[in-house]
Amino acid sequence: MAVLLNEEILKAIDDNGQIDTYEYAISTGRDHQIVVGAVKSIQSMGNLVTCEQRSFNTWSLTDEGKEVLEHGSHEAVVYASVDPTAGTLLVDIMERGDNAKLGFSKAMSNGWVMLDKNAEGGARVFRKVDSIIDEVKEKLRNVAKGSGRISEDELKEYKRRKLITNIITKSYIVSKGDNFSTSVEKLDTDLTPDMIANDSWKDCTFKEYNFDAMGIPPVCGHLHPLMKVRAQYRQIFLEMGFIEMPTNNFIESSFWNFDALFQPQQHPARDAHDTFFLKDPEKSFEFPQQYLEKVKTVHQYGGFGSEGYKYEWKLEEAQKNILRTHTTAVSARMLYKLGQQKFTPAKYFSIDRVFRNETLDATHLAEFHQIEGVVADYDLTLGHLIGILYAFFKKLGMEKLRFKPAYNPYTEPSMEVFSYHEGLKKWVEVGNSGVFRPEMLLPMGLPENVSVIAWGLSVERPTMIMYGVDNIRELVGHKINLERVYTNPICRLDN
Ligand code: PHE
């Protein structure tokens, strides 16, 4: 197609000595830009043609002009709105929009309609002729096409009516160059090893580089916005020396999700309002026995300086399978593992999906992604937690933080983290954090002088803020706009 147009243009130059791209475009019914594009590609083939630019004034339709082209001139619209037999009340015509007044006076001066001021029910407009020719529309059609006869007076008149406007158009006068030919030689674009080996490159004509050409977008997979944000968080944790925890189990036992975290069995979060329980398999049976006993004891009777919850701890409750409600279940498994070895300080993180049986609304679904960071070391304090939160959130571009005392069954003290959002101009909650309780850590076998600080946040919230999505359903589910997924920029959290 492109080659065909190139040859056609060369032929026209051969026939006429030269062409003007603008006139050529009009006479062949082509878009001027396409003709110019073809000429540029001919130019890139060597000295086939020479080009000289010229600029001149042309007319183009204003928005109002385009409206006239589509629906007819204002006067024609008024004429059409007049009932051919009964006429139409003037007030009704005037109600038909901003251009009705102008259209009416033009229709009157054209002699298309007449006004009976004393008609019954008020001034009434009647048609004066049986049919009209909407010359304005026809002339504008010619302007739009860049052709046809239109007088200077008419141009002036339409310009005054703001239907057309003057624009400067650039076109090229293309004539024969030194190497003119009407057939387009296919130029070589690649220098191959063969060409070098057999010397054929000497006879090749290579296409010139076009450094201004836009690249072709590569065909590739696209990360969902949530996954783009996840990649960025993962990067930040890795930069900070954290190791990723294995999160590949959506199904978890209540034991690891709740009991190991010193969350009492009658805690409201466990009942059916917040947790999805599994029917099949309903229960888990494999637990580290000794550890399980210690967990039971600390719930029931206390220990390690704690009084415990003083209730009867039930194995069946701990066995119940659920969809994990937080990734802290993963952290619990990892910390237990850590407690079983000779202790060395550790920094862990996870980013994965969790599930809660919540009422769905614009910002909540029954599943979302959590980000969690965990640091285990000797004698860590709340000060360390605050310090690392500053370091972590700074990497996300959040430097102003505030902390608010909070409650989690497994951390003491616990803090909600707020950050000042420069875009939203307010403090927004960005996470939850705390120092894990000894009642959780000591049964795992971690040394007494080791503390573990941790924090968690969701992926959805920063993603929604970042990509300006205010309904979670535009981010997850069948209403997601795939085009947006493709074209969304990569996530730079510190930007
Ligand atoms: N598990 C908490 C939540 O689901 C987050 C958290 C993680 C809090 C670690 C404290 C420490 O909101």
Report on this structure.
Strand 4 and strand 5 (124-127) form a beta hairpin. The chain contains 19 helices and 15 strands. With 495 residues, the protein is α+β, with helices and mostly antiparallel strands. 35% of the residues lie in helices and 22% in strands. Among the domains are: 74-133, Arc Repressor Mutant, subunit A, CATH 1.10.10.2330; 226-487, 2-Layer Sandwich (BirA Bifunctional Protein, domain 2), CATH 3.30.930.10. The relative contact order is 0.09. The strands form 4 sheets. A 7-stranded mixed sheet has the order 7-10-11-15-14-13-12, sandwiched between helices. It has a 3-stranded antiparallel sheet with strand order 1-6-2, sandwiched between helices. It has a 3-stranded antiparallel sheet with strand order 3-5-4. Helix 2 crosses helix 3 (32-43). The model has no long low-confidence stretch (mean pLDDT 91). Phenylalanine (PHE) is lined by residues 326, 328, 372, 408, 411, 432-434, 454-456.
Q: What is the CATH topology classification name of the domain at 226-487? A: BirA Bifunctional Protein, domain 2
The unique ligands bound to this protein are: phenylalanine
The largest beta-sheet arranges its strands as: 7-10-11-15-14-13-12
Strand residues, percent: 15-25%
Please mark out the parts with pLDDT under 50 across 5 or more consecutive residues, or reply none.
none
Q: What general outline do the C-alpha atoms trace?
A: elongated
Number of strands: 15
Kindly report the average pLDDT value.
91
The radius of gyration computed from the alpha-carbon positions, rounded to a whole number of angstroms, is 38 Å
User: For the report, how would you describe the main beta sheet?
Assistant: 7 strands, mixed
- Indicate the structural class: alpha+beta
What's the CATH first level of the domain at 226-487? Answer: Alpha Beta
